[in-house]
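Note to self: keep these together.
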Amino acid sequence: MADRVRKARAPGRFGGALVGLVILALCVMGCGKMDELGYEPEVRDVDVARRDIKEVSSRILDAVAVKGGKVSPAGAGVSICEPDPEHLYVMRHPWSVSGVPNAELERGMENLRERLPGLGWKITEYGRNNSKARSLQIRAEHTEKPYKVSITWARGESGGEPLISVSVTSSVCFRAPEGTDLSGEY
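Structure:
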């Protein structure tokens, strides 16, 4: 009986070692940079990704529902994704709402806390941040789309203008279609 157990284990040990060697050999030869990400990036045209993140941002702006505020003109942009900066990128869309009293901005933050979940966002963090100003902050991840958002209400206590700052970014890297020059993207 002991011989059977030993014989049954021997091929398993050998097989496990063989599998380990094959995996090691593949990685040494260059499994690919995608292993660093843990996923295979979706091929997405930069203009399509730009339109998508603008649409996501627009819905967040609608949820803020601050009347009379001025929205910064910053547009959606591209940043490279380190494992393969010539082919991989992330989208970012920073903007802000200002020009209204803090009471209106506070109402905007309350609106976001209440409305974001209904728009497909999971709030992962809500409360005062660790800055000296202890600004109110919301962080959320979209449950269906590859985006995350960081929203901060800066009350302007240090002499700056009170505002709600919003930064929407893709939570994954996208692969640019063959022939796309990411260095020319903004």
